[in-house]
Specification:
187 residues, 65% helix, mainly alpha
Length: 187
């Protein structure tokens, strides 16, 4: 009975992934659909490959469709899916409704100050797709603007350094946690 339930859950996850990808393809303006289909086919294959690779390491409490969405959005943003999975685990433990004490929202704990930059409303940050898209873009900007992963993670978590150049303990612990999770997924 447990095997049948597992098969049903996995099948549902794949159906959700296929639906999400088809929705993305067919919501495009007609004049660019052929190019989008070619790109999306590559994204689908990459998403499936990463899904198979990372599913055993992610809690069964995380739905297949959410895991597939996280992988898909990270590939779309050209950021390592293992890094995004590590950040989502550290930031929200895969809870799209998470709100921090400081008001950061969703899977990637986006600060609402980013809403104006990305032209979204605060409540949009609870949408996993929107949250991941914005979080991946912010991280990509950070990765391109600093010299190390540690500095990019510090920027993502805290945003700036103190005048003396020291990061707060919370940010130092965050960097260690994300790097630990990242290494465990890449092993």
């Amino acid at each position: 009975m447990k095997i049948l339930a597992s098969i049903i859950v996995v099948s549902f996850g794949w159906l959700c992934l296929i639906f999400f990808i088809l929705k993305t393809i067919f919501m495009a303006p007609p004049e660019i659909v052929p190019e989008k289909i070619e790109i999306k086919n590559e994204l689908v294959q990459s998403t499936e490959d990463y899904f198979i690779k990372y599913r055993p390491f992610i809690s069964n409490k995380v739905s297949d469709s959410l895991l597939a969405l996280i992988i898909f959005k990270s590939i779309e943003a050209q950021v390592d899916p293992a890094l995004i999975l590590s950040i989502v685990k550290a930031e929200s433990n895969f809870n799209p409704l998470a709100v921090s004490e400081k008001g950061a929202i969703g899977l990637m704990q986006i600060n609402p100050i980013w809403c104006k930059t990305f032209k979204v409303k605060r409540e949009d940050l609870f949408d996993p797709e929107t949250n991941l898209e914005i979080g991946c873009k912010i991280l990509k900007i950070n990765l391109n603007s600093v010299d190390t992963l540690e500095n990019a993670l510090a920027l993502y978590n805290w945003g700036r350094t103190r005048r003396d150049g020291r990061l707060p303990r919370e940010t130092r612990n965050y960097i260690k946690r994300v790097k630990f999770l990242y290494k465990s997924l890449e092993a």
